[in-house]
Design goal:
Order of helices and strands: HHEEEEEEEHEEEEHEEEEEHE
Number of helices: 5
Largest sheet: 8 strands, antiparallel
Distance between the termini: 114 Å
CATH architecture of the largest domain: Beta Barrel
Number of domains: 2
Strand order of the largest sheet: 12-13-15-14-16-11-10-17
Radius of gyration: 33 Å
């Protein structure tokens, strides 16, 4: 009898407990207990590691310009700006975080199942040292076939809490050293054309044509006009100090600086050129052997002379011979034959 009483008492205790357990398993409310809260959303690995405020991502194109059909690559730099070691996780380098859109803001579609080649290959290190960085090169054209078309594109690396600034990628017309090119320069005072000398300055000629095809010169001022001597343009700063972010070694030749000669300008501290060029209005032998000649005016020398006649500042001060009226390039269009 005593055993039966004990079993009955134990059953009376276990039955309510089992009922509560069943209700809890089903997510239902249990009388006398506070409501059960919903399960928390699983955070992203980036959230758990705490990259916000410590990780800086920068993008840059590997090449200045790309030609149609050429692999388009960007270099991503992941910088640990904190004073502590940062754990590296696969999601950090996930290529799906790279987004590409054209200049109109239209996103480029990613190819289905396309893999995005990266360099270096293999697994990354386990940690980023304090105030150090890691780099990855991504071949975007594998994932975004639309990058094979001429145009300008912006690329960003995005995460809800960490994002890079947009970087510009340009696909321009292909330069063929076997062809002859003529640049038609349209200004607000008329048109003139330039024919090139690739046999004496192949790298500087290619640089000028690539810059022109990228639209670099469009809208720039003739920032220096020396009466009877030259007109000069190609500086985005407009003060004679600008260059495109790189320099091209000189290719001096025996060609004389005569009226109509087109040469690449360089700062007195270097012989390397960039984007600035000048056109001679008279024979100036003192320029020979000191500046790289890239061509000569083929047509429209009268327009060059008209530009050279605009009023300018005096020949002293920080900005001598600066035009007192707007004289600018509207467009440079390169044609091959």
């Amino acid at each position: 009898m005593r055993h039966r009483a004990a079993l009955g008492s134990l059953s009376s205790i276990l039955t309510p407990l089992l009922a509560c357990s069943s209700l809890l398993a089903q997510g239902a409310a249990v009388p006398g207990l506070p409501p059960r809260s919903a399960p928390a959303t699983q955070p992203s690995p980036l959230d758990r590691v705490g990259f916000e405020g410590s990780l800086k991502v920068e993008l840059a194109p590997v090449e200045r310009y790309y030609y149609p059909g050429q692999p388009v690559e960007v270099r991503a730099t992941f910088q640990n700006t904190s004073g502590q070691f940062m754990k590296v996780i696969p999601e950090l380098f996930d290529p799906a975080r790279l987004k590409v859109q054209d200049v109109r803001g239209t996103p480029l579609a990613a190819a289905a199942r396309a893999r995005l080649a990266t360099q270096p290959e293999g697994p990354p290190p386990e940690e980023i040292f304090p105030r150090r960085s890691l780099e990855r090169v991504y071949r975007l054209s594998d994932r975004f076939p639309g990058l094979g078309k001429l145009g300008k594109y912006t690329v960003v690396w995005e995460h809800p809490k960490v994002a890079s600034a947009a970087t510009l990628v340009q696909v321009i017309r292909n330069y063929d050293a076997r062809r002859e090119y003529v640049a038609e320069v349209r200004t607000n005072m008329g048109r003139f054309s330039i024919e090139f000398f690739p046999s004496v300055a192949p790298n500087n000629v290619k640089n000028f044509i690539d810059l022109a095809n990228s639209g670099y010169y469009d809208g720039l001022q003739f920032h220096q006009v020396i009466p009877g001597i030259l007109i000069q343009a190609g500086d985005r700063k407009g003060d004679g100090t600008g260059y495109p972010g790189y320099r091209v070694p000189p290719e001096f030749s025996q060609i004389h600086h005569l009226k109509g000669t087109v040469s690449m300008w360089h700062h007195p501290s270097t012989v390397d050129s960039g984007s600035q060029f000048f056109i001679m209005l008279s024979d100036q032998s003192q320029f020979d052997g000191h500046y790289t000649v890239i061509g000569q005016v083929k047509e429209g020398m009268d327009v060059v002379e008209k530009i050279n006649q605009v009023p300018t500042t005096e020949d002293h001060g920080r900005m001598p011979f600066r035009p007192l009226q707007s004289v600018h390039i509207e467009e440079v269009r390169v044609k091959g034959r």
